[in-house]
Amino acid sequence: MSKKEGQFAELERAVGVREGFVEGMVDEDDWSFVIKLHALFEAACGHLLLFHFREPALADIVARLELSNKTTGKIAFLAALRLVGKRSRRYIAALSELRNDLVHDVRNAEFRLGDWFASLDPAKQRTLAVSFSPFETFLREGPHLPGVPLEPKHQEQARLDTVLRRAREQTKNHIWIGAHYVLVDILDMKGYSEYRQWAKAEALMSEDGDDAG
């Protein structure tokens, strides 16, 4: 099992869904795919918040937080704690916008991602193609090691016209590839959370030692 598969299995256990739920979403119809993917991000972000705070009593409160509200949502908390980056936040915000357009009308069950994307004006297509491709954005923007150029295959992958073409021709796959990047980013932040907690404990112990002296 790869590291990514292990992380997804851990997340599935933590949020109470069946094994294989994450990878199985791509086989859903487009409407279900969007709804379930958004629900998974809600669960993943809530899981990270609870992991960071280490306070089970907050579980119900965290669960009720909206995902993408910029001032009171899960993403707002994670951003303030520096536990989710700009590229991942942009992806989740775009997904939330799409989910909110779909969730309140069952007639949207016949929704098709390709048709939806094709109906958008070119500027909106470009914006969403970038929002849903956080890894390619990272390749374009860095940070990278000084003096170490990207491999040619990564240069091609990161080109805006390449990103836009994939979004137009394989909209669902485009969103799915971005989802993998963001989920791994969120789950990897558990390590940074542990470091933050350790650093805080070290600082408190240092202060206590100074006071004792």
Low-confidence parts, pLDDT < 50 over ≥5 residues? none
What is the H/E order?
A: HHHHHHHHHHHH
Q: Give a short account of the largest sheet.
A: none
Residue fraction in strands: under 5%
- Mean pLDDT, all residues: 90
- Cα distance spanning the termini: 51 Å
Characterise this structure.
There is one protein chain. With 213 residues, the chain is mainly α. Helix content is 73%, strand content 0%. α3 (30-53) runs parallel beside α12 (171-212) and α6 packs antiparallel against α9 (134-141). It starts with a helix and ends with a helix.
SSE arrangement:
Elements: H1 3-15, H2 21-24, H3 30-53, H4 59-64, H5 74-80, H6 86-102, H7 113-119, H8 122-131, H9 134-141, H10 152-158, H11 160-169, H12 171-212
Helix pairs in contact: 3-5, 3-6, 3-12, 6-9, 6-12, 8-11, 9-10, 11-12
Summarize the structure.
This protein is mostly helical and 213 residues long.
Name some characteristics of this structure.
213 residues; 73% helix; globular
